[in-house]
Each structure stands twice: as C-alpha cells, then as structure tokens.
Design goal:
This protein is α/β, with parallel strands linked by helices. It has twelve helices and 13 strands. It has a seven-stranded parallel sheet, sandwiched between helices. A two-stranded parallel ribbon has the order 6-13. The longest helix has 21 residues. It is globular and about 55 Å long.
C-alpha cells in the first residue's frame, strides 16, 4: 500500500460473516488509518477507525466510485445467498453488483482489489488429493452460487487484462464458520425449520454418510488474516484458504458422537429437493450436487507467499460453530443477528 501508516481501506459486504471479521481485524491494525464499511444497512456496531455507508451494490445508483475515491484498497465481500428460488435476484447482486464494484475500482484508480472468490468457483475435482490454484474455475453450472462465483472469475480475467496497473488478489476460501455466524448461516442454509437434533448432537441417532461428502472448512477470522496479509504483501492472483483436516462422515461422527450410516447420494438429494421445493429448506439440491463435487484445495501458495497459516483446525471450527448454534450466538449487525434453536 502506498501509505502504510495511514492506508484507507474500503470493505463491501462489511456486516456479514467475513466482513465483520475483516473490519474488526483492520480496525485493530496500526498500519490501517481508516476503514469504510459498505452495507445495505448501517449497523449499531462501531469499531475504531471505521465509518459506515449505506450502499447496495445491486443498485445502479450506488455511487461506488465516490465511495472508493482515495482508497488504497477495496476488499469486495458483498454477496447474497438468497433467494435460491429466484436466481435472477442473486445474479443482480452478486454478478452485476460485482462487475459494478470492479468498474468503480478502475474509475477511482484504486491500486488494489481483493476479491472474495470461493472453493465454489472450482470445477469438479478430486476428493483424494488437493489441487492448487491452477485448477479450472468453471464452477458447477446448476448451482447459482458456483455459477456466479465462476462468472466473476472470468470478469476479473478481463479486468486484469484491461487494468494491469491494478493489483488483483482472489481469495478462494473453504466453507467459513465462526461462533457469531451461527444464526446467519442457519437462516441461509437450514431456515427456520432446522431440526433440534442438529443443534443438539446428543439427540442425533446416526449420521448420514453420503458418497462424495468430503469438504474443507476454515474459521472466518483465519480467512480475515489472509485478507489483511494481502494488503501487506505485493502479491497477485489466487490463494486457496482452508484448514486441516478435511471434513467427512467419520470426522463428523467422532465430533458429534454419532454413528455414520451409509446413505445413497440419490436418497439424500431427493430429500433435499423435496424440502427445497416446498420452501422448507433454503439450501438448494443444486448446491448439494456441487458440494459433492468440490475439489480439496492445496494451500501451499498462501503459506509461502502470504506467510499465512490457520490458527484453528477444522475440527475446532466446527466445535465452535455448533456451540454458537446451540446458544443462538450472533453479532450486532443485521445479517449476523442470533437466535437460539434446538
């Protein structure tokens, strides 16, 4: 950054799961002079050195170039997961809003853009070995989340070609959890009909063991540190972010004290599709299809070029998240409000 002692950082989507961790970390960073958080609704939360703007990136009248004027970096986190039954709406926020952010970064001549991509941008890949950042990012076409993340990867390819003086960093994290995100993620993926046994593992009679269900997780605060390090190091390109070990039925069974029972993929998908079709479950069967095909990620580049390593294991991340789910934890922002279940 050009002025490390007083750098100005703008964060879109600043009140969500990742945004709250990134803003908190930057507010405590002595190398950051000010943080401007953009969100649709201004929160009650007031971290040091932080100002808020009510901005919806989906709006053509968002005035993003003005918000970005004078910034040393823009961290783009804004994302809408719902409504899953109306992909045109999420497309307007995620894809058209993302492109609007990129164009405003260029118009304001911001020297650094850090974009929140995802493991969901990757094409189907192996579950028995890890892939690096060169793995294709064409997503899983049926799932809106993956389709939108992959589309923005292509938009950034064009952006980098047209604006070579702007340093672009793409973060591709695994599934992100923290205690305070429990309420938000419950609403996004499970909805208000989340069964009590999921929040109280001692009541779970068995754990479905579905072929292909082997994924990675990461604590949101650990992901936020990678964003912070991208401001300090003159790096470009993509970085995989994940913690060990990979999550599968055996690991979950040990964590929850439940016996894994093999369940055919088609049976699990049929149940999810039925619940989604009846609007009982926000998470779509298309996202379920994608999760079963996501590759495991190799994070060597983040280790070597950013000096980044997660402080928590995936097991510790899930333990914390389950505790947050049981206790209804949240945060003082509208997306992160908590509610106890179970």
């Amino acid at each position: 950054m050009s002025n490390a002692s007083g750098s100005r950082i703008v964060v879109t989507g600043a009140t969500g799961n990742v945004g709250t961790s990134v803003v908190r970390l930057l507010a405590e960073d002595p190398e950051v002079g000010s943080v401007r958080g953009l969100a649709r609704r201004i929160p009650q939360w007031s971290p040091p050195k932080t100002e808020w703007s009510a901005v919806d990136v989906a709006s053509e009248q968002a005035g993003l170039a003005g918000e970005f004027a004078g910034a040393d970096a823009v961290i783009h986190l804004a994302w809408a997961f719902q409504p899953t039954h109306d992909p045109a709406t999420t497309w307007r926020t995620n894809v058209l809003g993302g492109i609007r952010v990129f164009e405003a970064v260029a118009a304001a001549r911001v020297p650094l853009l850090v974009h929140a991509s995802s493991v969901g941008a990757y094409s189907p890949g192996p579950k028995d070995r890890a892939v690096d950042e060169s793995w294709p990012t064409h997503g899983w076409p049926d799932a809106a989340y993956c389709r939108e993340k992959a589309y923005l990867e292509r938009a950034l390819d064009t952006f980098e070609r047209d604006h070579p003086s702007t340093r672009v960093v793409r973060m591709r994290p695994a599934f992100l959890f923290k205690r305070e995100s429990a309420g938000e993620q419950r609403r996004i993926f499970a909805g208000r009909f989340l069964p009590g046994p999921l929040a109280r593992p001692e009541l779970l009679p068995f754990l479905p063991d579905i072929p292909g269900l082997r994924v990675q997780a990461l604590h949101t605060d650990d992901a936020a540190r990678a964003y912070q390090l991208a401001l300090r190091h003159r790096v470009r390109g993509a970085f995989n972010l994940a913690a060990e070990p990979p999550i599968d039925a055996q690991m979950l069974g040990e964590l929850l004290g439940a016996r894994p029972v093999r369940l055919p993929r088609t049976a699990a998908r049929s149940a999810i599709a039925a619940a989604w079709g009846l609007h009982l479950l926000p998470a779509s069967p298309h996202l379920f299809d994608a999760v079963l095909r996501l590759p495991l990620m190799d994070c060597t580049r983040a280790h070597t070029e950013l000096g980044w390593r997660p402080e928590r294991t995936a097991t510790e991340v899930l333990q914390e998240f389950l505790q947050g789910l049981q206790q209804g934890d949240g945060a003082a922002t509208e997306p992160m409000r908590g509610r106890k279940v179970g």
